Amino acid sequence: MCYVIGIKITKKQTIKIGNAVLDLDAIDIPVQSGFAYDHWPVIFKETQEKKGPDNTYNSILRPGLMHWELIPNWVRNEKELIESRKKYTTLNIKAETLLTNKVAQSTIHTHRCLVLASHFFEWQQIEKEKYPHCIAINNLPLFYIAGVWNTWTNQNTNEVKHSFGIITTEANELMSKIHNVKKRMPTILNENLANSWLNENLNDAQILELAKHQLEDSKMKAHTVAKNFQQSTTPCEKVDYKIFTSQTLF
User: Fold this and answer.
1) Within 10 A of 178 (CB to CB), how many other CB atoms are there?
2) What CATH number is attached to the domain comprising 218?
3) Domain total for the chain?
4) Which of 9, 61, 140, 250 is 20 to 30 A from 158, comparing alpha carbons?
5) What is the helix (H) or strand (E) element at residue 211, kind and residue range?
6) CB under 8 Å to 19, separation ≥6 — which residues?
């Protein structure tokens, strides 16, 4: 799965997705767990009403911060949300069941987004020990993960939240060796596929094909990090473990 990620944009930069040119502010979050239920930067299409007698609508692509956890539309308030977390998590959504997922199915055709990241973390299990790894994309300081989002209103307070979940797919060869228990990975999209994911006219087959996409392992890099990396200001700092001197990591 993908529950721990990080991002670093050292200065304001411009990115292009399709015909859209977006300005991203500098941001530095070395590591964040989804179970913090905090905000994270995403790119999404926001529907805006045009001024004029016809009252037509158009969609504008923009970056923004969203609550990481796709909040079910049947959850009425914060208390119910906290209770729902004891039964299931919506931080990640499996690509294979995306169209039938009860939380995501109302958003998948109209509310797809791109989750921004610079790296993510997974654990490799060897016997009874787990060894965390930092995984990044070769020569790319920033990449896109497929996501879905919605708008949720707390019926007790009328607070409105944009929330999202990350799409995960079956692990490629590299990630199968690292995430060797569940063998999952985030659905990482290159620039062209990212633009396609945001296309509002995709049919079910096209959505599933993109959601199941596996980035080639040759485009990824990984190394072991400290077991307490989530408490570190440099979580991606490489740490070697003696066990790997006698056992091949990849």
Assistant:
1) 24
2) 3.90.1680.10
3) 1
4) 61
5) helix 204-211
6) none
